[in-house]
C-alpha cells in the first residue's frame, strides 16, 4: 500500500516535497509517482508492486496539466520518479518539455506494441482506450455506421452529439486523422461534423451517452469505458441509460492510452524503471486495467468481462506519438471549422 497519497490541488509544493521525503525516510526502496489517474483500483496495483519488490510507493494525484507544471517548477529538485497520464497527447506534452528520460528495457520493448510507446523510450502506453461511436438502439441500426468520417455525411444532420474542442480526447482523434488523411481532408471532415451537431458541444463523455439515450441526438463519439462504467454502476438509472445505447467500433478504431514515463530528474531511477516493467507484466496489466474498463496494452492479456462483451475491433495503424505532434494543427482546424 502506498505510504503517502496526496491530492495536489490546493497544497503547497513544500508540503508535497517534504511529505514525500518524510515518507521515504531516506530509504532507497521507494518510488514517487505523480498520477492523473484517480482509480481506487490503483491502490491494489501499488500494493502488488510493493509486495513483489519491497519498493514503497508514494503517490501525488492531480490533473495532467497541473502535474506537468509542478514537475517543471520543481526542476532538478523534483521528487517525481514517474509521471502517469491518461492521454498520449499529454505524454507528448511532458516529453516536449523535457520531463522524461529515455529508458532502455527489453521488458518494455518486448512487452508493449511499438505504436503505443515513444520511439525513443521516453514514455510507454500501458492501457488502451478506444474512442467509439455510440448510438440510440431505438433509432439507429449498426449497419448504418462505418467510420468517423461518415458521421460528417448529411444523413446525420442534427443527430450528432460531441464534447467541446478543448477536450484532449477529441483533439487526439483529430490529430490522428491528420496523420492518416492529411490536413485538408481532415478540415473538410470537421466542417461536416460541426454542421451535424444536434446541440452546441457540452458536457463530458457520460453526458454524451445520456443525450443519446434520451434521444437528444442519435449518435455520439465517446471513450468506450464510459459506457462500461454505466453498465456496471450500482445505480439502476445509470444501467438503464447504458441499456439504451449500443457500442460501435469504427473501421478502423482510434485508440489512445494511459501511459507513463520516468522523470528526467528521478531520484530513484532504478525503482521507477522497475515500476514501469511491473506495469508491463501480466499482473501489472491486470491491476492496471481490470476495474478501470480499459484494454490491456500487452497482447494476450485477459480483458475485463464487460469490455470483452463489446466485441473485437481493429485499431488504426497510427503511432500514438503523433497525437501530440499534430495537436497544435488539430486545434487550429477545429477552431476554423467552428467546433467550440
TrEMBL record:
The keyword Iron applies. This is Iron transport system substrate-binding protein. It comes from Synechococcus elongatus (strain ATCC 33912 / PCC 7942 / FACHB-805). GO terms for cellular component: outer membrane-bounded periplasmic space. Keywords: Ion transport, Iron, Iron transport, Metal-binding, Signal, Transport. Belongs to the bacterial solute-binding protein 1 family. SUPFAM superfamilies: Periplasmic binding protein-like II (SSF53850). One of its GO terms (molecular function) is metal ion binding. Fe cation binds at residues 38, 225-226. PANTHER family: IRON-UTILIZATION PERIPLASMIC PROTEIN, THIAMINE-BINDING PERIPLASMIC PROTEIN-RELATED. Residues 1-22 form the signal peptide. GO terms for biological process: iron ion transport. It comes from the Bacteria. InterPro entries: Ferric-bd, SBP.
Amino acid at each position: 500500500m502506498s505510504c503517502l497519497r496526496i491530492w495536489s490541488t490546493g497544497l503547497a509544493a513544500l508540503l508535497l516535497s517534504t511529505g514525500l521525503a518524510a515518507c521515504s525516510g531516506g530509504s532507497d526502496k521507494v518510488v514517487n509517482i505523480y498520477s492523473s489517474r484517480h482509480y481506487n483500483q490503483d491502490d491494489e496495483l501499488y500494493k502488488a508492486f510493493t509486495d513483489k519488490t519491497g519498493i514503497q510507493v508514494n503517490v501525488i494525484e492531480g490533473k495532467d496539466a497541473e502535474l506537468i507544471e509542478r514537475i517543471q517548477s520543481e526542476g532538478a529538485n523534483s521528487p517525481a520518479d514517474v509521471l502517469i497520464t491518461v492521454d498520449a497527447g499529454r505524454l507528448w506534452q511532458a516529453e516536449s518539455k523535457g520531463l522524461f528520460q529515455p529508458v532502455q528495457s527489453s521488458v518494455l520493448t518486448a512487452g508493449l506494441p511499438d505504436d503505443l510507446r515513444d520511439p525513443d523510450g521516453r514514455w510507454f502506453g500501458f492501457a488502451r482506450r478506444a474512442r467509439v461511436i455510440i448510438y440510440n438502439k431505438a433509432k439507429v441500426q449498426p449497419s448504418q455506421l462505418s467510420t468517423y468520417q461518415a458521421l460528417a455525411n448529411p444523413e446525420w444532420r442534427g443527430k450528432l452529439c460531441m464534447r467541446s474542442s478543448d477536450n484532449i480526447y477529441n483533439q487526439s482523434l483529430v490529430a490522428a486523422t491528420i496523420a492518416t488523411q492529411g490536413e485538408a481532408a481532415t478540415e473538410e471532415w470537421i466542417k461536416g461534423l460541426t454542421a451535424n451537431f444536434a446541440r452546441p458541444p457540452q458536457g463530458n463523455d457520460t453526458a454524451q451517452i445520456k443525450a443519446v439515450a434520451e434521444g437528444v441526438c442519435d449518435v455520439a463519439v465517446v471513450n468506450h469505458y464510459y459506457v462500461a462504467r454505466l453498465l456496471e454502476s450500482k445505480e439502476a438509472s445509470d444501467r438503464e441509460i447504458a441499456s439504451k445505447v449500443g457500442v460501435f467500433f469504427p473501421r478502423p478504431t482510434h485508440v489512445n492510452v494511459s501511459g507513463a514515463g520516468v522523470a528526467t530528474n528521478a531520484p530513484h531511477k532504478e525503482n521507477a524503471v522497475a515500476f514501469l516493467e511491473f506495469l508491463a507484466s501480466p499482473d501489472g496489466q491486470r491491476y492496471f486495467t481490470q476495474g478501470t474498463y480499459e484494454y490491456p496494452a500487452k497482447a494476450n492479456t485477459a480483458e475485463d468481462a464487460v469490455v470483452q462483451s463489446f466485441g473485437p475491433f481493429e485499431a488504426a495503424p497510427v503511432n500514438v506519438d503523433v497525437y501530440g505532434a499534430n495537436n497544435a494543427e488539430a486545434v487550429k482546424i477545429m477552431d476554423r471549422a467552428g467546433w467550440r
